[in-house]
Amino acid sequence: MPNAVISGTGMYVPDNIVTNDDLVSQYGIDTNHDWIVKRTGIEARRFAPEGIGSADLAVPACEQAIEDAGLQKKDIDMILFATLSPEHCFPGSGVYLQEKLGMPEAGHFCPAMDIRNQCSGFLYGLGTAASMVKAGAVKNVLVVGGETHSAALDLSTRGRAVASLFGDAAGAVVVSASDDESRGIRTWKLGADGRYADVLAQRVWDVRKRPFIPVDENGVGQVQPEMMWAQMDGRLVFKNAVERMIMGLMEVCWKEGITMNDIDVFAFHQANLRINQYVAQQLNVPEEKLLQNIHKFGNTTAATIPTLLAEAQREGRLERGMKVATVAFGSGFTWGAALIDW
Ligand SMILES: CC(C)(COP(=O)(O)OP(=O)(O)OC[C@H]1O[C@@H](n2cnc3c(N)ncnc32)[C@H](O)[C@@H]1OP(=O)(O)O)[C@@H](O)C(=O)NCCC(=O)NCCS
Q1: How far apart are CA 48 and CA 167, in angstroms?
Q2: pTM of the predicted model, to two decimals?
Q3: Residue 90 resides in a domain
Q4: Catalytic-residue membership of 299
Q5: Are residues 320 and 261 part of one domain?
Q6: pLDDT (tens digit, 0 to 9) for every residue of the chain, 342 residues total?
Q7: Ligand 1 center to residue 121 CA distance, Å?
Q8: 83: CA distance to ligand 1 center in Å?
Q9: Does the beta carbon of 326 sit less than 6 angstroms from any atom of ligand 1?
Q10: 40 and 128 belong to one structural domain
Q11: Of 265, 280, 268, which Cα lies nearest the Cα of 319?
Q12: Which of 20, 62, 117, 269 is labelled catalytic?
């Protein structure tokens, strides 16, 4: 059975930096820097310009990851695109990315699949890719997390509790087959609790209704604010996030027969610095072992973990031989954790 390793990483964020103060001065939101930093650790986020979607953000991240893996686009056997902000209802972002990478023009028609697991999407993708590689079905899988939140945030005081948290970014890894036994994606554990599906959701439409979006007398769709924008019970999310993240990390360590002390680097999903600090504290993990980028990018959902890995690799914080633990929790509720020998 081949081993599944992360052979390359890449990331991309749009240029436009939106600070907490900008939320007040540019968007007129009744908030302030100290409130946001105290509760979340977020100081700024990036917003993509109009006309740019999640697949656009993913292109440079994927090109970087493919190059870093020492591969070419034609070597990619499959694309797994994790996003909650696809360009359209359908098709998914994966096919747009495949086209933007120039694959069809080059006669390369690799499958492209979207993963709809929000903040856990990247880890659902990583587990799927590793399973397929280990099964011998594919050799190189591009796993990408990309989000364009800025288009779908209620950037007003009404929406401040959600709008102040999210940013745009893309991160990618290549998962490859390898005979090298010293490294690899060792174990992963995914979970979901659908009882909480409505606690963090952006509904937009409801296909149980006829029509699925209310229409006015001229047949023009009218989406009410509570359907259009993401809704969240922040405290319930916070409580469940810490419990599930702690449990997920303990489960993967237990499965591999190691302790938290054996792990060199932790790549936690970046939803809230306070969540991550609490999880680390409960597990006796020193903060220096945590990779963090929430302060500058906010919560970039499926992109948080691959951007952390790409940044850490470039900064020399990730070296061959290190043990990496990663964990995520989000809408669904869904969660996942994985252990990687880098
Ligand atoms: C969102 C979160 C920071 C809110 O913090 P909180 O302490 O729970 O705050 P609450 O939602 O109870 O709101 C407290 C008050 O602050 C206000 N508030 C919310 N967002 C605000 C903002 N950006 N600026 C200023 N005030 C804000 C609320 O309107 C509320 O005012 P009220 O008491 O007059 O009604 C926190 O719940 C959280 O981080 N939860 C996890 C969210 C998350 O990680 N989501 C993504 C998961 S993948």
Answers
A1: 9
A2: 0.97
A3: yes
A4: yes
A5: yes
A6: 899 999 999 999 999 999 999 999 999 999 999 999 999 999 999 999 999 999 999 999 999 999 999 999 999 999 999 999 999 999 999 999 999 999 999 999 999 999 999 999 999 999 999 999 999 999 999 999 999 999 999 999 999 999 999 999 999 999 999 999 999 999 999 999 999 999 999 999 999 999 999 999 999 999 999 999 999 999 999 999 999 999 999 999 999 999 999 999 999 999 999 999 999 999 999 999 999 999 999 999 999 999 999 999 999 999 999 999 999 999 999 999 999 999
A7: 24
A8: 24
A9: no
A10: yes
A11: 265
A12: 269
Q: Which residue has the tokens 């699949």?
A: 113
| Alpha-carbon 115 to chain mean position | 11
Q: Whose CA is nearest to atom 31 of ligand 1?
A: 161
Check residue 167 and give left, alpha or beta (phi > 0: left; psi -120 to 50: alpha): beta
Quick check: CB of 24 below 6 Å from ligand 1? Answer: no
| Residue of the CA atom closest to atom 40 of ligand 1 | 234
Are residues 140 and 8 part of one domain?
A: yes
Distance 161 CA to ligand 1 centre (A): 5
Domain that holds residue 76: 3-178
- Check pocket membership of 120 for ligand 1, CB cut-off 6 A: no
Residue 37 lies in a domain: yes
119: annotated active-site residue: yes
Q: DSSP of 224-286, one letter per residue?
A: -HHHHS-EE-HHHHHHHHHHHHHHHHHHHHHHHT--GGG-SEEEE--S-HHHHHHHHHHTT--
**Domain contains 223:** no
User: Has residue 207 been placed in a domain?
Assistant: no
165 with 189, same domain: the answer is no
Query: Do 150 and 294 reside in the same domain of the chain?
Result: no
